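Q: Study each token:
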Amino acid sequence: MSTVDTFGSKGTLEVSGKSYEIFRLNAVEGVERLPYSLKILAENLLRTEDGANITADHVRALASWDPDAQPDTEIQFTPARVIMQDFTGVPCVVDLATMREAVASLGGDATRINPLAPAEMVIDHSVQIDVAGRADAFQRNVEFEYQRNHERYQFLRWGQTAFDDFKVVPPGTGIVHQVNIEYLARTVMTREVDGALRAYPDTCVGTDSHTTMVNGLGVLGWGVGGIEAEAAMLGQPVSMLIPRVVGFKLSGSIPAAVTATDVVLTITQMLRQHGVVGKFVEFYGEGVAQVPLANRATIGNMSPEFGSTAAIFPIDSVTVDYLRLTGRTEESLALVEAYAKEQGLWLDADTPEPVFSEYLELDLSTVVPSIAGPKRPQDRIELTNAKNAFLRDLPNYAPEVGAGADEVGRESFPASDSPAPSANGRKHVHVTNSEGKEFELFHGAVAIASITSCTNTSNPSVMIAAALLAKNAVEKGLVSKPWVKTSMAPGSQVVTNYYEKAGLWPYLEKLGFHLVGYGCATCIGNSGPLDEKVSEAVNEHDLSVVSVLSGNRNFEGRINPDVKMNYLASPPLVIAYALAGTMEFDFEHDPLGRDEAGNPVFLRDLWPSPDEVEKTIASSIDRKMFESDYADVFKGDERWAALETPEGDTFAWDPESTYVRKPPYFDGMGMTPEPVTDFSGARVLAKLGDSVTTDHISPAGSIKPDSPAGKYLADHGVGRRDFNSYGSRRGNHEVMIRGTFANIRLRNQLLASENNGAGVEGGFTFNFVKNAQDTIYDAAQDYAAAGTPLVVLGGKEYGSGSSRDWAAKGTALLGVKAVITESFERIHRSNLIGMGVLPLQFPAGQNAETLGLDGTEVFDVTGVTVLNEGVTPETVKVTATKADGAKVEFDAVVRIDTPGEADYYRNGGILQYVLRSLVA
């Protein structure tokens, strides 16, 4: 609530006979030249100006923004709402429930812990593809989901009743980001404040990094860690520096055979190469009007993959048309248009071009069909080069395959159920699967082909194209290869409905792409098990099989523990690869099979025309579908309704629960924080390389029986088949501590320098207490018992990927005091501070290797204590002492970037800071 209006910006806007209170941007000189995204921030500051945390100087700083300057001005951004998915949302609600008890123990009112802004959670990450390729897959998977997640869902039902302004979209509804753009997003918010109906831009932060999908609707929002999201729910503004804004000009139009996925993979590669970490990206130019809203959302969705904070499109007539199609009221549509035009937020041909910090341009007509892989979204491969790229990368995953096995003549092509020919000397393994089908498995076999994830399943053009390609394939007599696990996980029930209306489901099902659930599924690691016999063959013979998915994440160890190489592709290409059965395939020259007349069938023979796709969309999608599907979106099915709901302001923790346990963050916490300290005698828990993701640090996928987390669950009477995933267990800190750094593809370089452990993968380290190799969890327990602090060493882009708060929580709970890297990704750096872990960077141009650090050293860090005096040091001194007494000294850059972050660190974390503030 604004208590100060220095600029006299408060006024009224009349729309359709209704009066709205607004804060006019034209009251502040200089705002008119700003990019769209910064105008949104300027309105946010005008509306929340209180003369203390948010002042007129903040507004002036934004109005006088220098596009060429490096960010150095801190502002406080107050998001209009918070959106969560259940993997990251459950620990949020666990923390809020714990905070209620902590407030009470400090003498405060427990109900003060309550969302002050609308908070909505969509349960979409818990469905696993246990059953696929059959008509009852959806029903079976939902049954398994409720069996596994009964405790979690009961807990969320409690939260829905215990907290005000907190709503839960039940399982089986859709993927969080698709539900957000199709229903939850307002574009312009309204709320009654002091008796007046106030209108203001819809903004949000979310506990999933792909919250940026809503940027396609002109809504400024981005992913934050769950820790920051909790603080935002409790009214704490998000502390940020006024960012640089990259203007990305779009021109031309998309060619016929190119999909939105190809466009987004091209943009991802361009922006990752340009460097946009910590920046906003904003699209402009005459090409914007040619980009459908679904394509804008697809581009916005991939913002974390290119590293930007947000990737936004301004509001225009395309935005309003989409809001109308998806069932928003005519009253809200009129308000969106009138408000955007009044505030200079509307884009049309007459809109003057804003100033930007940096400029990029893409002629959409130059985009070609693409995939990305085998382990990063930015590693784009033109489809025409996919086979050669696979052969180039294969020796990295199958060392016995020499670099000489690059090319293979292909005069024949595979029959419908025989393997693709492969380069001479490759191993072929004969398999009879659980259904009695016989085939050969080989390096590069497509083990998973999955249409899944928010990025593409919200986009009718690629989803209809996939279904039409399936129809054409079936009519030519083609089938998917028997070793491919095929699945279809749409982003909302609307997709199912338009498939049914268009009569396309039978063709998808004929190729094995049955409905398996509405959820993130394969993209989050819930691909489910491969056929038992396939899995045995892959592991026994160390085959490098692949997955192809229409997702946004293909990081190592994420998709499936049996699958080493993972490729992102558009939905129609996912189907094409299911037909091919191998990554070693040239779609231009290799036929996918023969038709009844014996003629070879190529991908070009199956690809639907843009006209056919558009006609199908026009005849099968309408406003009534969205109105019907979202009419009772918070109600859920009979399973959800039948769940017993605990009652009370505080939660009754079950000491036997292996899903939801009270975490120790506030144990023994007093009103006054302990002073921060220097530390000495620290050991390296892990020495890691470049591009270590939050999946490496805190995996979301399956729990191995012989891992510390698996042993914990077994000791608590949980059977192996009920282990579920790390993601689903995030409400239990005991599981998550044991799962920290437990990714099966993690490479701890500390084992290369000690104990001849080179090549060891997984959650292992060298334990200097035992002087032997050990699990990271067990080693951390030994260090804690000995009173030894810990550090982690990393390379470039440390913590990229999902906005996973457990990557920071687990790091802190293992006893890590500092993480020293070459560079951090934005969200993970702030999450570490939010958990009281110090993020440090090596001096510019230096890293562990150039400094001669191998991880066997003992570390001392000094200069931290000046934070107690209200000063944030630019650097601290790090001294690493080797076993022979030799010392390596350097000044590490302190990556506490704002005064607000310094407050969080001094308090031991953001939640402790908020808790003390609320009680005080």
